């Protein structure tokens, strides 16, 4: 038997998935090419180049890559600002940045972009795409409305219908018969694109570098989001660093020939998986079928009205907006409402770079504010019948110890622990201690000793302990206690009190932490 049932099943699924998603990708590639200003051909060939190369080199096996709405909106801004040479230059730089990010294994850091910020700029991009289609819709409103009706009506009949392709075909046929128009896609060259590397020295390299970074970041974020969706559907786990590297290679291959760069595309990837696609072959087949379609039907594609593409993009834009996710976030948190609203507005009114920067900054400030609700919890220590004359107090820091709350914790500890001879400070419930927090622990220890008190730190994490030892705040002789539980610290404090060692520096101990 030349091929196992599983291999044959996967091959069959990849072929069906690739062919199916090609029919979904074609109208989108044409639309995004026209929207970008680079032309419909740049969109289609961009989908072909990225579709093949990302499937080969990427880190998500069943993912389909190509030009997307989010990326195209930014490309429009760059085309208007730099012209076609500057646009190609920015795309090449973005590709190189992605390759570098993949090599440096920065995938895990890119995923740290706050979710409300991502939702905000996604909504903003959807609104931008919608607004940019108004001029085409106004030119032929009948065609545009017909296309919109088909885009939203056909999925109600059957989810299996490639509604964008059907809307494209019907809209074009209606235009040919009843509503003739001169605003069409125009000729799509059937020859393969040639190298189009611009003269970088004649361009504004500073602005171009900024643009390339924005494209690289956006493309990586969108690709990794799509990867997570594919993972969930296929019960697999993608390699984020390889995914970014693969997208960079794919985009470099597309951009040096003057085509649009792309990202992992959620909708196309979902269509592929639902149709049976599970392997890299599905993405390659999708690209080959795209090429065959454009070669076979180039004359028909040239006659597609821009109003029809405008209707497709309007529907795509409305579907991009994260209605359900936005509702869940804003009803659960007023902070999310602030971030999403600000990021959406800035994306529409200024640009994506500013929106992401401000959205991330706002999310960070809100996080710091929430973390700043740290406080001291005192635990009563029963020393009756233990012949202990010294007073022992135990406190636990509830919440993170970082620069925003350090002073408050120090002041609170001095007030609440002023009548104690020995203070046990438990860090078990403090998940984050930054560099300032480490220094503050040193100051607390110094102040306690200056007041003639003994400070015992317990419940700390290994990395925090190592930092304190390196800074000579701890001398390493109480390691078991410092890394132990609060019960160990209290037991050790009682031992010191019985020995009359309520003050002074640490003593070497063989006391082992309790396991209860």
Oligomeric assembly: single chain
Secondary-structure-based class equals mainly alpha
Poorly predicted spans: 504-516
Largest sheet: 4 strands, mixed
Question: What is the count of structural domains?
Answer: 2
**Integer-rounded radius of gyration:** 30 Å
User: Helix-strand pattern, N to C?
Assistant: HHEHHHHHHHHEHHHHHHHEEHEHEHHH
Structure in words:
The chain is mostly helical and 516 residues long. The chain folds into two domains: 283 residues, no CATH class; 124 residues, Transcription Regulator spoIIAA (2-Layer Sandwich), CATH 3.30.750. It contains 22 helices and six strands. The strands form two sheets. It has a four-stranded mixed beta sheet, with helices on both faces. The longest helix is centred in the N-terminal third of the chain and has 35 residues. It is elongated and about 100 Å long. The C terminus is likely disordered.
Brief account:
The chain is mainly alpha-helical and 516 residues long. It has helices at 5-36, 40-57, 69-103, 107-110, 115-132, 134-139, 141-157, 163-177, 205-234, 240-255, 266-274, 280-296, 298-302, 306-320, 323-332, 334-349, 352-371, 406-416, 435-450, 462-470, 479-482, 486-498; strands at residues 65-66, 263-264, 375-379, 392-398, 422-426, 454-458. It folds into 2 domains: 39-321, no CATH class; 375-498, 2-Layer Sandwich (Transcription Regulator spoIIAA).
């Amino acid at each position: 038997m030349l091929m196992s049932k599983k291999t044959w099943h996967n091959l069959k699924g990849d072929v069906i998935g690739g062919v199916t998603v090609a029919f979904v990708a074609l109208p989108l590639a044409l639309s995004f090419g026209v929207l970008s200003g680079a032309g419909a051909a740049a969109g289609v060939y961009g989908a072909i180049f990225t579709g093949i190369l990302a499937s080969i080199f990427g880190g998500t096996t069943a993912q389909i890559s190509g030009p997307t709405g989010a990326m195209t909106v930014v490309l429009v801004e760059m085309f208007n600002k730099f012209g076609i040479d500057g646009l190609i230059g920015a795309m090449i730089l973005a590709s190189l940045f992605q390759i570098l990010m993949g090599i440096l294994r920065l995938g895990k850091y890119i995923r740290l972009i706050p979710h409300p910020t991502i939702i905000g700029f996604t909504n903003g991009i959807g609104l931008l795409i919608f607004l940019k289609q108004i001029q085409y819709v106004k030119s032929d409103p009948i065609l545009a409305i017909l296309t919109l009706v088909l885009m939203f009506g056909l999925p109600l009949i059957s989810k299996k219908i490639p509604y964008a392709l059907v809307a494209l075909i019907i809209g074009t046929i209606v235009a040919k018969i009843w509503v003739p128009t001169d605003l069409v896609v125009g000729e799509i060259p059937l020859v393969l694109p040639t190298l189009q590397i611009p003269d970088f020295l004649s361009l504004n390299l500073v602005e171009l570098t900024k643009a390339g970074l924005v494209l690289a970041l956006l493309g990586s974020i969108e690709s990794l989001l799509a990867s997570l969706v594919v993972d969930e559907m296929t019960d697999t786990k993608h390699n984020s660093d390889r995914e970014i590297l693969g997208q960079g290679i794919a985009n470099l291959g597309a951009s040096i020939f003057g085509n649009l760069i792309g990202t992992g595309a959620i909708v196309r990837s979902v269509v592929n998986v639902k149709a049976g696609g599970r392997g890299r072959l599905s993405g390659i087949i999708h690209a080959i079928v795209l090429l065959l379609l454009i070669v076979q039907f180039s004359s028909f594609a040239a006659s597609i009205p821009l109003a029809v593409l405008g209707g497709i993009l309007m529907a795509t834009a409305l579907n991009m907006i994260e209605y359900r996710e936005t509702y869940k976030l804003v009803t659960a948190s007023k902070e999310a409402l602030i971030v999403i609203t600000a990021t959406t507005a800035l994306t529409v009114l200024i640009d994506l770079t500013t929106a992401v920067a401000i959205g991330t900054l706002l999310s960070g400030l809100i996080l710091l504010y929430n973390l700043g609700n740290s406080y001291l919890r005192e635990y009563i220590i029963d020393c009756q019948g233990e012949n202990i004359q010294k007073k022992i107090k135990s406190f636990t820091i509830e919440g993170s110890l970082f620069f925003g709350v350090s002073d408050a914790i120090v002041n609170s500890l001095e007030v609440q622990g002023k009548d104690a001879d020995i203070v046990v400070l438990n860090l078990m419930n403090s998940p984050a201690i930054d560099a300032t927090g480490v220094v503050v622990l040193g100051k607390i220890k110094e102040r306690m000793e200056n007041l003639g008190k003994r400070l015992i730190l317990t419940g700390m994490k290994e990395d925090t302990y190592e930092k304190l030892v390196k800074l000579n705040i701890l001398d390493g002789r109480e390691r078991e206690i410092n890394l132990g539980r609060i019960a160990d610290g209290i037991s050790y404090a009682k031992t010191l009190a019985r020995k009359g060692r309520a003050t002074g520096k640490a003593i070497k101990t063989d006391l082992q932490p309790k396991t209860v």
